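name: query_chain
kind: protein
chains: 1
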Amino acid sequence: MVKDQKAPDLYCSIVNKAHYSSSDFNPLYILAVAADHAELQEATAREAASLIAETIGSLMRVHSRRPWGYSLPGGGFEGAIQDLSVVGLFQPGMGNQRPLSPSLLKGDWTQF
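structure:
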């Protein structure tokens, strides 16, 4: 119960985007690390993400610093990180475009 109403320290999602279409295996990996841990600096998180991306042969590696979700007027939130793998990551109509680039994604993303 310690983490009730708080974002997790670490979040990882692996989704086969091809499940929603007839294409071959098309994995989407999302790794989120809480920024409020002094012992896990951003450089360490990026190093870990880079190692994971290299290990799995990632085609695009991007980073964004953002809240777990965006507050709504009157309470609640939307755009949670755990929802990105299903909805909300790609610009409308851009989910299967090639070549891959951060411009395909909603929000402010940078390559690493």
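note: Helices lie at 42-56.
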